[in-house]
């Protein structure tokens, strides 16, 4: 099996991600060596082979040399990679029952009188996941002599969503081109596909949607399906299924039909035949993802049908193959004066219980659009009879692209921990998505990928952490951001505790810094038009009101903020009464969501004792200061991590500081032109006047939609 050239002939550049397997220090090596003296892996499936290859690869990197492969005659220190039924683990009373299809256990045991380590699952994929966990322990220098670990994913569908076009442009991609080289597929299978699969399997991701939600029907053509098959073949040993996006009007574009009406028999027959054709090529195809009637995409509403009618038509065609249909709830109507915050709920909530069992309604974490901070989406907890899956955005469309260091783990933890106060299925958002609506109903989480053709995959070293954290939260939505950051830091930057502590500290404060210098106190969507690069709080000339930053901030001489209380748009009424009360009252709403829900006078007295205007300025500056602290922290690591990656991070932090100041200055200049108040003492005026910031254009910013 080919694993690419990651370690040969290159300075360390981030290609290896968190699977670096660098040589262990001699003390650790000496301690571990007797406990890892060989591999016993009786199965010969592609997945077991992948597990053994990974173990060998890890061993080679950390210890040097190869592990011997042993036969059934065990020796002390053997590492057993086995399935539940293996005679080697009979009679040990291992907890296979609670592992499900994808879980694993790691257990130190005595078998045939020898001290061994068992890595096992009910299926081969569990054993592979177990190997990755084992390698993680070694990378982190943790003891492996008394292992008793059992772990299983809490969600079934753990997928990346690639917003990749067939011409390799990645919508909202900041890491180069798409890694899918459609033109060379299916003949040429880039070794990178295997490394992609390894990385995903190492964090438990088990599916990938290859194509953009703004879909192109051509991906469903027979020639493209052969290319998709080649990718599916590369990923299969790693437990990863492929999914595609379906353009709702494909029956017209590819099939030559006059309509795509989901209740039209010819349309239904077309989809059924197309889906049967896909499964004939790829028998374990995962299913389809659809963005319908949203931002210009076709959908069932074009024929006066509901989202449920559209989704169910495709779900029915997928069901005989056990395929999943992911249907996005990211909709806001073309002609609708209703607060955009409310529109998805208005449209979807009445459809609760009307979707087939193999439909997952895919809901973004917040009601607007992947902003640096949003309250949780009111649909979570409000559709108890409908499987809802979470959609997070790993790529940082609204958080500074690849150059701003922003660890999203804290944002995702905040959303997943949030209490919906809807009792039907456990009250936190995590419990809502973890709990199947009935036996056999699907559960899942999707992450919009930040992966591209850059050597470091994600466009920056630190953005790899967001890919990593997504996998960990998809596996366990109750996981903790800090623990995940620590695991990633150790594996990615080496075992020096000073390095780990510094990296974790930087990560844990990083997202709040972005919130503060871009959109503090619950402001949102203040980004420049289209590409969303840099500030544009003054933008007011776009066709639809909710495309304009001024719509979100509602900054006027009388004050600032979007009134979503009963006096305003009443979006709060879409939440459970306890949530609505908490966020609706100025006494209890957290400062972080203040202007999301309230329009307040500039002189409103904040909990800090400052006026709202002063507090805003303080927050912008706090964001900039935090970037400076990250720079100082990073400067202290010079020489403690490899020079190439260190220098890249240093330079990116310098870009981030420039842009944080740009954000702060432009925003302060704009809001001051409305608030007409002096800056609080000790806070510097913007470097330029407002016109200067308004005149900045960046037409070639990367990642734009096409
Ligand atoms: C927005 C992006 C746009 C996506 C859209 C979506 O700006 O490129 O197509 O979300 O999620 O955040 O469909």
From TrEMBL:
SUPFAM superfamilies: (Trans)glycosidases (SSF51445), beta-N-acetylhexosaminidase-like domain (SSF55545). The keyword Hydrolase applies. Transmembrane segments: none annotated. GO terms for biological process: xylan catabolic process. One of its GO terms (molecular function) is xylan alpha-1,2-glucuronosidase activity. The active site is at residues 295, 369, 397. Pfam families: Glyco_hydro_67C (PF07477), Glyco_hydro_67M (PF07488), Glyco_hydro_67N (PF03648). Residues 138-457 form the Glycosyl hydrolase family 67 catalytic domain. It is an enzyme of class 3 (hydrolase). Keywords: Carbohydrate metabolism, Glycosidase, Hydrolase, Polysaccharide degradation, Xylan degradation. Belongs to the glycosyl hydrolase 67 family. This is Xylan alpha-1,2-glucuronidase. It comes from Sphingomonas leidyi.
């Amino acid at each position: 099996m080919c694993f690419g050239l990651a370690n040969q002939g290159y300075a360390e550049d981030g290609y290896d991600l968190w699977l670096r397997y660098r040589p262990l220090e001699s003390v650790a090596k000496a301690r571990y060596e007797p406990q890892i003296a060989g591999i016993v892996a009786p199965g010969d499936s592609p997945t077991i082979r992948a597990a053994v290859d990974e173990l060998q690869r890890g061993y080679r990197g950390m210890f040097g040399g190869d592990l011997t492969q042993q036969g059934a005659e065990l020796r002390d220190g053997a590492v057993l990679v086995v399935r539940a039924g293996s005679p080697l683990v009979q009679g040990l009373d291992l907890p296979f029952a609670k592992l499900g299809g994808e879980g694993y256990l790691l257990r130190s045991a005595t078998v045939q009188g020898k001290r061994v380590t068992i890595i096992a699952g009910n299926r081969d994929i569990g054993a592979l996941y177990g190997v990755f966990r084992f390698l993680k322990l070694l990378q982190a220098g943790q003891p492996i002599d008394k292992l008793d670990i059992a772990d299983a994913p809490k969600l079934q569908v753990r997928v990346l969503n690639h917003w990749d076009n067939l011409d390799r442009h990645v919508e909202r991609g900041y890491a180069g081109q798409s890694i899918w080289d459609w033109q060379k597929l299916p003949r040429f299978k880039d070794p990178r596909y295997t490394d992609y699969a390894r990385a995903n399997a190492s964090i438990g991701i088990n599916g990938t949607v290859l194509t953009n939600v703004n879909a192109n029907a051509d991906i469903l053509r027979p020639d493209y399906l052969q290319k998709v098959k080649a990718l599916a073949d590369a990923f299969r040993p790693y437990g990863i299924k492929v999914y595609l996006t379906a353009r709702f009007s494909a029956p017209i574009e590819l099939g030559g039909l006059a309509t795509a009406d989901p209740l039209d028999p010819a349309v239904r027959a077309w989809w059924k035949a197309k889906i049967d054709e896909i499964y004939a090529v790829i028998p374990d195809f995962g299913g389809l993802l659809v963005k319908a009637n949203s931002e210009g995409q076709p959908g069932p509403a074009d024929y006066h049908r509901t989202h449920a009618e559209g989704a169910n038509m495709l779900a029915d065609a997928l069901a005989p193959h056990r395929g999943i249909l992911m249907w996005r709830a990211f909709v806001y109507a073309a002609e609708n004066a209703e607060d955009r915050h409310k529109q998805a709920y208005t449209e979807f909530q009445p459809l609760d219980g009307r979707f087939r069992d193999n439909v997952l309604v895919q809901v973004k974490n917040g009601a607007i659009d992947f902003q640096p901070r949003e309250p949780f989406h009111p649909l979570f907890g409000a559709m108890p009879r409908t499987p809802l899956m979470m959609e997070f955005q790993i790529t940082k469309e609204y958080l500074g692209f690849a150059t701003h260091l922003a660890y999203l783990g804290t944002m995702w933890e905040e959303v997943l921990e949030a209490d919906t106060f809807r009792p039907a299925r456990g009250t936190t958002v995590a419990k809502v998505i973890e709990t199947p609506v009935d036996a056999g109903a699907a559960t899942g989480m999707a992450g919009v990928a930040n992966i591209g053709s850059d050597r470091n995959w994600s466009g920056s070293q630190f953005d790899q952490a967001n890919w990593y954290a997504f996998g960990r939260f998809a596996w366990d939505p109750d996981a903790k951001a800090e623990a995940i950051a620590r695991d990633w830091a150790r594996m990615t930057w080496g075992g020096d505790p000073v390095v780990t502590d510094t990296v974790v500290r930087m990560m844990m404060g990083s997202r709040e810094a972005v919130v503060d210098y871009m959109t503090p106190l619950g402001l949102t969507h203040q980004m420049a038009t289209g590409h969303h690069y840099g500030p544009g709080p003054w933008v007011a000339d776009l066709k639809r009101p909710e495309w304009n930053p001024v719509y979100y901030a509602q900054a006027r001489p009388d004050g600032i903020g979007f009134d979503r209380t009963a006096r305003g748009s009443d979006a709060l009424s879409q939440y459970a009464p306890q949530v609505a009360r908490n966020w609706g009252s100025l006494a209890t709403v957290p400062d972080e969501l203040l202007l999301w829900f309230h329009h307040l006078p500039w002189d409103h007295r904040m909990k800090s004792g400052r006026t709202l205007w002063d507090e805003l300025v303080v927050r912008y500056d706090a964001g900039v200061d935090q970037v400076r602290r990250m720079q100082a922290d990073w400067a202290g690591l010079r020489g403690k991590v490899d020079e190439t990656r260190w220098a890249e991070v240093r330079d990116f932090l310098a870009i981030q500081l420039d842009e944080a100041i740009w954000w702060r200055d432009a925003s302060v200049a704009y809001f001051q032109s409305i608030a007409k108040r002096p800056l609080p003492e000790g806070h510097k005026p913007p470097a330029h006047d407002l016109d200067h910031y308004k005149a900045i254009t960046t037409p070639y910013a990367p990642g734009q939609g096409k």
